[in-house]
Amino acid sequence: MKIGARVLKTGLAITLSIYIANFILPTGYGTLAAIGASLSTKPSIKTSFETLVSRIISNIIGGIIAVAMMYALNTSPITIGITCVVTIAVLNALNMSNVIPLSVVNITVIMLGKTENYYSYALIRILETTIGVVVAFIVNWLIFPPKYDRTFFSVLESTTLEVLMLLRAALRKNTEFSTLNTDLQWARARIDKFKELFQLLRQEWLFTPKQRIATSRKLVVYREMGRATSLAIELLDALHRNSQVYNDFPLEMRSRFRRRIETLMSAHEQILLKFYGKVGIDEVNYMSMKLEHRDEYIQMFFDHVRTDTGIDTESFIRGGNSIIEILAASIHYEEQLNRLNHIVRLYKKRHDHEEIPFQHYDETN
Description:
The chain is mainly alpha-helical. It contains 13 helices and no strands. The two termini are 23 Å apart.
């Protein structure tokens, strides 16, 4: 069982909401404040603020509709159901579907209240819900505000290093097919986690244009890092799915291909080190092949397609496609590394003074 900061903040927001609601409003109120707080602690400050605004607006809309329906049709289960339907339709039309649950709860509580003064009762309930939403936002903002930089880099670095180790093993035919299946599923799940954290980083609440510009620059680098790791996974997947074809490569061809990929993987690691300041800005220039060597290298694959993929058409197409798929995956990986290297070099030359939130080989580990 894991209790994180967000869970603790939710509990704190609920407690404070109930206390504040009972202090400001008549005794006995606090239920909607607690519900509002529990539904409003979001993973980023920006999302929390957007939720705060949306929920206040939706609660006002729901309260107005509820009071109007009670005066027009009185209170009954059918009236409550109709009111909820109308409110949901209005909120959907306003692109506020994410705040519908709390609005429906608010409407139900208002319309089930045994009081003749609908206006004051609805106003109190709306205020009560607003207290919970506001308290949740303030708690999320001031107490352990979400910081995803460290987790982001931890996921990126550990996934990259693990994938490169798996690639080295696959290149030397040291992996089990079933085990690598599981490893690829893990790697894809980690990339999904990376993308989720990247979106949260994009949603950071920044106050000044200078902060926003600096963060945007870093996000460009982070995005290209993620793409490089994703393409390394695609190359590993291509080798895995076409392992029989790769194992049938001529010895010299397989040796040259392995050396080429190991060069790219070494460059990948050193580009990350360059970003962390461990490698010189103008280093890692050994990835590119001379033009004549590149032409010969690529021609080697096409020659193998023509000579060693079987005599029947089906075998030729299937085997040839597998060979070209392996080559294409390696070229895509190489192109992305060149792009990443260029972007990191520019970033370090122009903005090396900006703080990097996570340092490679953190001394606290």
